[in-house]
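[Q] Does anyone have a clean structure-token version of this?
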Amino acid sequence: MHQEKRYSVMSEHELRQEIATLHEKARKAEQLGMVNEFAVLERKVQMARAYLINPDSYKPGEIYEIEGDPGQYFKIDYLNGVFAWGYRLNRDGKEEALPISMLKCLK
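[A] Here you go.
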């Protein structure tokens, strides 16, 4: 059985290769109308991308736009690895975690 390597232990080169592979698989899934498979692969791309970003670039208390969800904003309460924990503005205020790769600076 093939054991997949965790994103957290991959080199930058390996992560970039993985992202390219996932993009290709997602493109094929989209062409075949496999909506759920496409969504899973896109989420994996976001996760892999998060490991290419320095978490120190994101600050608790700051507000970021959510990539792929125009007009939606996220306020970070704290960071844990490559996840930003906080809540979406103009929602029910429930705490959730997003990969930092999904957050865009407003500046």
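[Q] Thanks! Anything notable?
[A] The chain has two domains: 7-50, 55-104.
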